[in-house]
Write a structure and sequence with these properties.
This protein is an alpha+beta fold. The chain has one domain: Ribosomal Protein S5, domain 2. It contains seven helices and nine strands. It has a five-stranded mixed beta sheet. A four-stranded antiparallel beta sheet has the order 7-6-8-9, sandwiched between helices. Helix 4 runs parallel beside helix 6. It is globular.
Length: 262
């Protein structure tokens, strides 16, 4: 595969990925995740209560939900805050629902007890892939927070069944590529967002042609690229969990035990 990309990456190459744990000291778990120049703070906060609908319907266990926002200075031109318009914009609403679905897919809510975990994703800088970075970083923040609840004796069993990560793929300059940055995303003829568990099962696949069509072969190539990217992300997520003040080893042991030692 030849390098045809604006930043010189190979088609199957992720941007530089990093996780900086504990950037939000008042959250139980937090991480600054960077996919290249896309940077998102993901935090996990715990509330000892559940939504009213769960109480009314007598639903056992807890809940996990997410909020997503792009800070005004995160894009090239200032993005007004949602509160200035009096409502959440449709894109932000769709993304935060995606983050919540993705993390609930790998969490045993029954093991949370009567608690709600809030995953807050705040985009500091946007250069493509903010939703995939939010899911990937949100999972790390969640694992850190759950591990600390375990350490405090507030949870009996570790609720996170396995890790989940997300990455984009698409067709740029007639070539299937992995992890699109903004220039590629802007000019891509096909754009996919893929959410995958550590067991290599899909949680969600969002894909469409941008005033274009794509073949089955191209779709298979994009899914294969996304799978490769997610597998690399799982390794980096585990390293970040371990770096979060060292009780993180317990979280990884719980994940390994639940997932056959992988």
């Amino acid at each position: 595969m030849s390098a045809t990309r604006p930043d010189g990456r190979q088609p199957d190459q992720l941007r530089p990925i990093s996780f900086v744990p504990d950037v939000a000291p008042h959250a139980l778990g937090s991480v600054l995740v960077s996919f290249g120049d896309t940077r998102v703070i993901c935090s996990a906060s715990v509330e000892d209560d559940v939504p009213r609908w769960m109480r009314h319907q007598k639903v056992a266990g807890g809940w996990l939900t997410a909020e997503y926002s792009m800070l005004p200075y995160s894009t090239l031109s200032r993005k007004p805050r949602d509160i200035s318009r009096g409502r959440l914009d449709g894109r932000s609403s769709e993304i935060q629902r995606l983050i919540g679905r993705s993390l609930r897919a790998v969490t045993d809510l029954g093991k949370l007890g009567q608690r709600t975990i809030w995953i807050d994703c705040d985009v500091l800088q946007a250069d493509g892939g903010t939703r995939t970075a939010s899911i990937t970083g949100g999972c790390v923040a969640l694992a850190i927070a759950l591990n600390r609840l375990m350490g405090e004796g507030k949870l009996k069993d570790f609720p996170l069944r396995q890790l989940v990560s997300a990455v984009s793929s698409g067709v740029f300059a007639d070539t299937p590529v992995l992890d699109l940055n903004y220039p590629e995303d802007k000019d891509a003829t096909v754009d996919f967002n893929v959410v995958m568990t550590e067991g290599e099962e899909f949680v969600e696949v969002q894909g469409s042609g941008e005033e274009a069509v794509f073949s089955g072969a191209q779709m298979s190539a994009m899914l294969e690229l996304a799978g490769k990217g997610c597998r690399e992300l799982f390794t980096l997520q585990k390293q970040a969990i371990l770096e979060a003040d060292r009780p993180g080893g317990d979280a990884l042991a719980s994940l390994a035990g639940a997932f056959g030692g992988r």
